[in-house]
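Hi support team,

I submitted a single chain yesterday and got back a structure, but I'm not sure I'm reading the token output correctly. Could someone confirm the output below corresponds to the sequence I sent? I've pasted both exactly as they appear in my results page.

Thanks,
R.
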Amino acid sequence: MKAKELKDKSETELGELHKQLTSELFQARLQNHTNQLDDTATLPKKRKDIARVKSEVRRRELEQLEKSLKQALAAGESK
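Hi R., thanks for writing in. Yes, this is the structure output for that exact sequence:
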């Protein structure tokens, strides 16, 4: 999954994707523990995908905070 793909998704879709990836990571860890996982490289891939999703969510939170601070400063200066 690419970061560009995540930028096009909504907040709800990102939340759903995070839940799905977390579940898939849990299943992969369980399969790895029971020696049923064929491709062990899926574990770090899933972790990186989860990190990308979390990073995009945090980036959006910071953008919202920045906008609200700018609006508050602009409102405070106009008084």
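A quick pointer for reading it: The longest helix spans residues 42-78. Let us know if anything else looks off.

Best,
Support desk
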